[in-house]
Amino acid sequence: MTTNDHDCRVCGGRVREFLDLGSQPTANGFLPPEEADGVFLFRLAVGACETCTMVQLIDEVPQEFRYHADYRYRASGSASHRQHFQRNAQRFLRTELAGDDPFIVEIGCNDGVMLGTIAEAGVRHLGVEPSTTVAAIAASKGVRVLTEFFDEATAAAVHDDHGPADVVFGANTVCHISHVGSVLRGLDKLLKPRGVFVFEEPYLGTLVDQMAFDQIYDEHVFYFSVTSVRQMASRYGFELVDAEHTPMHGGGIRYTLARVGARSPAPAVARLLADEHARKLTDPQTHARFAGNVTRIRRDLLALLGEIKAQGRSVVGYGAPAKCTTVTNYCGIGTDLVPFVCDSTPAKQGHLVPGSNLPVRPPAAFADPYPDYALLFAWNHAEEIMANEAAFSATGGRWIRYIPEVHVV
Ligand code: SAM
Ligand code: TMP
Ligand code: ZN
Known about the structure:
409 residues; alpha/beta; Rossmann fold; 7-stranded mixed β-sheet; 6-stranded mixed β-sheet; 13 helices; binds S-adenosylmethionine; binds thymidine-5'-phosphate; binds zinc ion
């Protein structure tokens, strides 16, 4: 679909487009150089539903194009992620999974970053993960995995095979699933009467505050707010009973849904709803201002990179997260401005950033020799990366950041 009008995936209302990031490939579709010419492109644009407020992509890439054996995201790739999900698992073990013969299902368990800890504790669990290569890594950690897309039918099959679940968890996955109605109908079949659906996702409020427009890419079909999630839940017989800020991806929210009336909502729900209302998070003017600032970042970043090039100084990209695909393709950053990007993920090394075709090299290439500037694409890991690369700053190297605005540190 390429019109500016679109039916909301949650409620069927009219979605009003507010930002167009141009023609883009799938953000994690890192290709070997010999396959770069055949890259698949779609129009990356977002809008907000005039009825339920849900911010969402206008056009979408079929899920089978996004998640498959070549899906290169590895959740265990950063120490902070590993620690975060280990804590998450321990919290479930202390709370929802403390009863008799508990059972937890994770939607999009990836390489087992969370369920690994659950498996070690000997608690019944199942990961539902369609990307077979990452699913195999999870299995090698002792995690039980079903290599399917989660939907109503999968949920019913899991229930038939394993019985009802105390918890269904998802992290950075629920916002990827366009058939969210099918997911919620499935949860109604799978969860115990007092069972909970807990999911942690990037937050629209952070996106707007931090100007994190590079969080917009093919996989992120939805950009949740507490307001939109609450409305979504109520359409499918669920209630938003808790909402907590998390430090993930610069600041996400952990939502807890339960069947209507099964649990009393925590005071945080009303507090966060009031906060979103006060700051006009779902207002068209807020979205328009965001879109204007995105254009300014592109202008400033291209001006800075052009200036550095004119001075004969060097720049290397640091981190090749999916976000890097959005920024480089939207801004038109090619190897003339940034000759390569360093990334610690072996599966990305030797491949090209989709669309912009920047080669991805191992972190060792960064110091060989150090560039004058490093453009920090993995800005959500800034602390970890800048600490690891303290020698770069010590030799006079400067970091270029572009979120929330272009600046050099
Ligand atoms: N939970 C991990 C984390 O937070 O780092 C992984 C998140 S990763 C960005 C999203 C994962 O969801 C991918 O491994 C993908 O294969 C999986 N996924 C996408 N659609 C799915 C669906 N319909 N059902 C189950 N998993 C899905
Ligand atoms: P993410 O923002 O989706 O977590 O991806 C971060 C990317 O940055 C991932 O490809 C791994 C890479 N990375 C490094 O190259 N070095 C590092 O020290 C860290 C923390 C991440
Ligand atoms: Zn809607």
